Amino acid sequence: VAFVVCRSLEGLKTFSYLEELILDNNLLGNDLLLPRLPHLHTLTLNKNQISFQRNTCKILLDHLAEVVPSLRYLSLLGNMACPNELVCKEKDEDDYQRYRYFVLHKLTNLKFLDTRKVTRREREEALVRGAFMKVVKPKDAKVGA
């Protein structure tokens, strides 16, 4: 297996039967465009430049839902879109859970997100409230200020 840092994904269209794709550490952002890959079930985009700026992550997740309908495993660890208290001290487990609900709301067929299996309770919560979970807490939220 060879690992290549790439910025263009144009050549993937010739691999329509591709099932697993690892695109870690490639400087990919929210403008990532994949060709239709109907058999792709595993996609890792760890340590790229994907963020929750404006609606761009929503657009990326909508794009993934359209072009990779068989997606069951997605990992976005190491991206700004994936809040992690080990990487950013302002983030906590609640931020990470809201992120999971939002992603699961958009990608309803996922069985695993990052390193965790999707639970039945998470799936139910994502259906009810996932669309509203992209909002994160303000950095300097002070009670009674």
Automatic annotation (TrEMBL):
GO biological process: melanocyte differentiation
Source species, domain of life: Eukaryota
Entry-linked SUPFAM superfamilies: L domain-like
Coiled coil spans: none
Name of protein: LRMDA protein
Record organism: Glareola pratincola (Collared pratincole)
